[in-house]
Design goal:
- It contains six helices and twelve strands.
- The protein is of the alpha/beta class and 255 residues long.
- It has a five-stranded mixed β-sheet, covered by helices on one side. A four-stranded mixed β-sheet has the order 5-6-8-7, with helices on one face. A three-stranded mixed β-sheet has the order 9-11-10, with helices on one face.
- A hairpin with a 4-residue loop joins β10 and β11.
- α3 packs across α4 and α4 crosses α6.
- The longest helix has 28 residues.
- 24% of the residues are buried.
- The C terminus is likely disordered.
Length: 255
């Protein structure tokens, strides 16, 4: 009989708070982890990094991204004011609507009604933690209804053809286009944006079927088909952000 000694997995180091300038950043080391700077839902800065990542390397990384931290903390604070965590109001198609939550035996469902309020009908057993999932399910339905005809129209204008549309919650981007499968995925939070901003994201992702990167050739495609795309992008960036557990950091420029 052969006995093998099993060595316990290396325990993860305890998180460390690093003080860089006026910021406190929690360093969390994990195995097989890339370097990632995030802002948690509570507004705390967190840097996750590989086990061997030193404090000096972490501080240097943070110092290189101080502008990013300042920009995204400002956006985070603005978002907190725009969209309270208690769902007392929600954004839909560029407008902020007060909400009313009702207990109802047939649910969950949501509807924008004639009184100008977003009504959420929930079973009595619905947990508060389920609200986000319910809201995003409604966003996905509404977004599909709006986007499908847009995609068909712009495919004809641009001479491209996507292979399908998907809708899901995303934490760091409004949409993506897999150029291999030609499938476009849109963030359900895009339903918060104005129709003009939604159209910009659709054209942006379809443009990747003509140009994969974000270089001059890609921008030329956008200039050709949607000359005011920069204005729309700016409005999208200033509007309500995806409600998220954390905010992804670099690379912010990917589609």
């Amino acid at each position: 009989m052969i006995f093998r000694l099993r060595h316990p997995n290396n325990p993860q180091p305890e998180p460390i708070d690093l003080h860089v300038g006026s910021y406190t950043v929690r360093l969390v080391r994990k195995p097989k982890q890339g370097v990632r700077l995030t802002i948690t839902r509570q507004g705390e800065l967190r840097l996750t990094a590989p086990m061997a990542y030193s404090q000096a390397e972490a501080i240097a990384f943070i110092e290189q991204h101080l502008d990013w931290i300042a920009k995204h903390l400002e956006r985070f604070k603005a978002q907190q004011a725009l969209e309270p965590a208690d769902y007392s109001q929600l954004h839909y198609l560029g407008t902020c609507y007060p909400t009313r939550i009702h207990q109802h035996p047939i649910g969950p469902r949501m509807a924008l009604e004639a009184d100008g309020l977003l009504h959420l009908y929930l079973k009595p057993s619905t947990k508060e933690t389920d609200l986000e999932k319910i809201v995003h399910a409604w966003y996905a339905v509404e977004l599909r209804r709006l986007v499908e005809p847009l995609v068909m129209d712009w495919e004809t204008k641009m001479g491209v053809k996507s292979a399908g549309l998907r809708f899901r919650r995303m934490t760091s981007r409004w949409g993506s286009c897999h150029t291999g499968t030609r499938v476009i995925t849109l963030n359900t939070s895009l339903a918060k944006a104005t129709p003009a901003c939604i159209e910009y994201v659709v054209v942006h992702e379809l443009a990747h079927l003509l140009e994969r990167g974000h270089g001059p050739a890609f921008k030329a495609v956008l200039d050709r088909y949607l000359p005011d795309w920069r204005k729309r992008r700016g409005a999208l960036q200033r509007g309500p952000l995806p409600r998220r557990n954390n905010t992804d950091t670099v690379p912010a420029g990917r589609s």
